[in-house]
Design a protein that fits this description.
This protein is 12% helix and 40% strand. With 200 residues, the chain is mainly beta. It has two domains: 8-84, Elongation Factor Tu (Ef-tu), domain 3 (Beta Barrel), CATH 2.40.30.20; 103-191, Beta Barrel (Elongation Factor Tu (Ef-tu), domain 3). A six-stranded antiparallel beta barrel has the order 1-2-5-4-3-6. A six-stranded antiparallel β-sheet has the order 10-9-12-7-8-11. It starts with 7 loop residues before the first strand and ends in a 7-residue tail after the last helix. It is an enzyme of class 2 (transferase). Its EC number is 2.5.1.9.
């Protein structure tokens, strides 16, 4: 479980294909604080640390993860948002994030405002019921509040700190991002779809 509050950035230092899996070698200032088997969200995708060497560590993405996210398009040198899992007793500064991206979305607008940046995203319309005005959403691992919600579009505003300390600073119109919708909304929608369901 995560909160959508980014701790650090990592750089993709190497990519290796093995069957349907991809191994990513990552370089980050927090590498020395990690341990093997630890879960770390990468652009909002929960991946397990499988090796550590010097200032780099390795994570593996399987076919299901690659199909639902933009990880298959990562390139060496790319900046990635990192967040370690939530510890019991920590403040929940963002919202509950599972690290299980539902889909990818496309940035369709980036606009500089007077002291902030506006981004508009288009996502698959089948998720429309999960996005509400002033609700929470996780984009590339960042917990954000959405507004100007349409059937398959929404807008977020990024403050200078977030712009400088996440990869939103490199994001441009046309780029693809990972998106995770609010887990509470997903459970509520499921219960509406199956109102007579009972526990065995």
């Amino acid at each position: 479980m995560f909160t959508g509050i980014i701790e650090a950035l990592a750089t993709v230092a190497g990519i290796r294909h093995e069957g349907s899996n991809i191994h990513f070698v990552m370089r980050s200032a927090i590498t020395t604080e990690l341990k093997i088997d630890q879960s770390v969200a990468h652009n909002g995708v929960c991946l397990t640390v499988v090796a550590i060497e010097g200032d780099t560590y390795t994570v593996t993405a399987v076919a299901e993860t690659l199909a639902k996210t933009n990880l298959g398009k990562w390139a060496v040198g790319q900046k990635v948002n990192l967040e370690r899992s939530l510890r019991v007793g920590d403040r929940l500064d963002g919202h509950f994030v599972q690290g299980h991206a539902d889909a990818t979305a496309t940035c369709i607008e980036k606009r500089t405002l007077d002291g902030s940046w506006l981004f508009r995203f288009r996502f698959p319309e089948r998720y429309a019921a999960l996005v509400i005005e002033k609700g929470s959403i996780c984009i590339n691992g960042v917990s954000l509040t959405v507004f100007d919600v349409g059937a398959n579009e929404c807008t977020v505003t990024i403050i200078p700190y977030t712009y400088e300390h996440t990869n939103f600073g490199q994001l441009e119109a046309g780029d693809e991002v990972n998106i995770e919708f609010d887990v509470l909304g997903k459970y509520m929608l499921r219960m509406q779809q199956f109102p007579t369901g009972t526990l065995a």
